[in-house]
Amino acid sequence: MVTALLPPKLFRPTLWTNHQIDAINLQPFVKAGLCKEDFQEGDHIIFTCGFTTFDGKHTGMTEREVRALAYAIKKKGGTVYICDNAAMPNTGNKEYDACLIINHAIPYEEWLDCLFAKPLKLRDAIPIASDLLANSSIDELEQLVELEQLRSRVGMSETGWQKKVVSKIQKKLDAEHNGGGCKAKFYRGKDFLKLESQGIDWLVPGLIPKRGVTIIAGSPGAGKTTLAIDLICSVMFGETFLGEQVTEKGRVLLVSSDEPICFTQDKLIDRGISEECDHYSVLTDWDTLEWNLLVQKIKEEEPSIVAIDALTTIVTDSNFDENGKPAAALVKRFDRLSQQFGIPIVLLHHCNESKDKKGVAKIRGFSGIAAAASVTMIINDSVGSVAKLECPKIRGNKKNIIFSVTLERETGRFHVVEGGDPPPVKSLADQILSFFNGLPDGIRLEVNQIMEALGISNRGGLYKALERLIQRGQLVKRPAKVDGRRKLFGLPKAAEPEISTEVSNKSSQVLKEQVIQDTRQILDTPEDLLDSLNCSVPGATQNEDFQPADLLDSLTTLEPAVAQEESEREENLPQVSNKSSASLKESRVQVEKPIVDSPTEPEPTTEKVNDEAETVYEVGKEYVIRQVAGTTKNPCFEYITATLVELPHPAQPTGFIFELEDGTRVIKNEEDFRSAK
């Protein structure tokens, strides 16, 4: 039997091709890949080939399209195979045709190896390399292997490829991530001071913003890990850190790759973590080759902060050099991860041995490491029980903040001995901020008004408190419209809330069912069309780009227009009886059923498809269609008669479906057929 040739692992795989009708014709021996809902676990075959038309267009899949489809399938847990045959089998036996495709399919990785011997033009390689670098779901090692294969196929040297291609693509991606390639904006003087800037969102006010990379550097044994654990535990317990109250209490994630487990346990126990505490997670022995694992754990745990110990131990690649640009690129990669999930990432690193270095120059390695971070903290060796903690860089606050701190060993907490703002200034700043938060939006006050409202007599202390709030982005200062010498203070413009596009599978399904139910009530649409809409909604059961409100809004917007059109037509046809008018309304919403295997004779219906040409096509009527014949090397066209069985509809918007004499169904565009008359 033919089915004996089918590999057991590939029984009834999902078939993907540019011509969906080919996959539909081979059902039920394969499943047709039609939309994002079909990206799921199981076996998938991508059929890459097509044919070249007389106008030079290739109908098969390009290498870039195959790779993108394979990434999307693999991301959902599917296994990908590639069939690179010269043409789609057409023996007349559907089961045998499916068998031929399945037996000629090879694993995706083997297909990539076969490409290694095929030369590639640089203009074709650049888009593929861009897709690889932009896809965060690809394992880093797999990404390196595929980039190296592309370089070899193009025939460039390693230095030229890295400098002229990879680095420029990465720079472009970074620019797009930061808001586009061109960020320069020009303002007239009268408009510049009217700009309403948004306040900085802090996790630890003035020290740790909620987005970005914070580097804690120090010599071995200086207390980097202890300081980082004190920070994340302050977030976990909702306590103060270096005298500042954290703004968010939540779960934390510690990535420990620099010291034995027993040392980390000892520090956590000193900090007051009990065995019953389950508000934190620890990932041990992690390195950057398992990047996807870190992304997965952040998604699952939803931490408020992530601490990684340490930069030199999470990279196991022997070619990695912290004194080169790859080190800065790694910090930028962590920054993109921080921006993606809206959480701060604390990265531990070492200091130079030189005592002459100052500021960020103390941080060991390439200068771009500190430049890519939002905050840098350097903890120096203790003198007695007191250590100096320098903050040479805090994006959004003044630089060169210095603390003298001491570690309380019984509690594992650092306390500020000297440095930072005095307690009276902090207290007054908190009082001012609380006062402004209680005012209506947009209220700006002068210093005298603030003093009068709060009953403050010390003008100097008030200015210090206002300066603290302004430097942290918690208040803004603007000139008065009447007299620019007078200053107004108020809250910054509130940031627009971000709408997450990630919807859980369960919630997505509930929303989709509600949309379909509401749509039926609005338009009284037949079940067949709504079932086809289930397939046409991208990501309806995945977590990507599904916004059910968009579908409902488009349909509800359409409904008044349809009602108005019907009303106008009825006014122009007064002689039509009520019964005929009702029949006319029913015919307007009639939708053909999807393709089924049973050769039932469809009822002839007439619909207008092209309003400009006034062309009318009838289901059930015979037309002459153009088919490709001949061989692959010498193709030609032949014209045969076929019956129109289905007009375009949302599930298959690519053309008209015809049925041949042998029962096979083909899909054609409007220019590929004409009336049999």
Fold topology:
Layout: E1 14-16, H1 20-25, E2 31-32, E3 42-47, H2 63-75, E4 78-83, H3 94-104, E5 106-107, H4 108-115, H5 122-134, H6 140-154, H7 158-177, H8 189-192, E6 202-204, E7 208-209, E8 212-218, H9 224-237, E9 240-241, E10 244-245, E11 252-256, H10 261-270, E12 280-284, H11 291-301, E13 305-309, H12 325-341, E14 344-350, H13 368-372, E15 375-379, E16 386-394, E17 401-408, E18 413-419, H14 423-437, H15 447-454, H16 459-471, E19 476-479, E20 487-490, H17 505-523, H18 527-536, H19 548-572, H20 578-588, E21 606-610, E22 615-618, E23 622-630, E24 635-646, E25 656-659, E26 665-668, E27 673-675
Parallel strand pairs: 1-2, 1-3, 3-4, 8-14, 8-15, 11-12, 11-13, 13-14
Antiparallel strand pairs: 4-5, 6-7, 9-10, 15-16, 16-17, 17-18, 19-20, 21-22, 23-24, 23-27, 24-25, 25-26
Short recap of the structure:
With 677 residues, the protein is of the alpha/beta class. It contains 20 helices and 27 strands. A 9-stranded mixed sheet has the order 12-11-13-14-8-15-16-17-18, sandwiched between helices. The chain has a 5-stranded mixed sheet with strand order 2-1-3-4-5, sandwiched between helices. A 5-stranded antiparallel sheet has the order 26-25-24-23-27.
Keywords:
Rossmann fold, Arc Repressor Mutant, subunit A, 5 domains, nine-stranded mixed β-sheet, 20 helices
Uncertain runs are 1-9, 497-508, 518-563, 568-614
Provide a count of the helices: 20
Mind telling me the CATH superfamily name of the largest domain?
A: P-loop containing nucleotide triphosphate hydrolases
What structural category do the secondary elements indicate?
alpha/beta
> From the coordinates shown, what is the CATH architecture of the largest domain?
3-Layer(aba) Sandwich
Number of strands: 27
Annotated CATH topology of the largest domain = Rossmann fold
What profile does the largest beta sheet have? 9 strands, mixed
Helix content: 25-40%
Q: CATH first level of the largest domain: which class?
A: Alpha Beta
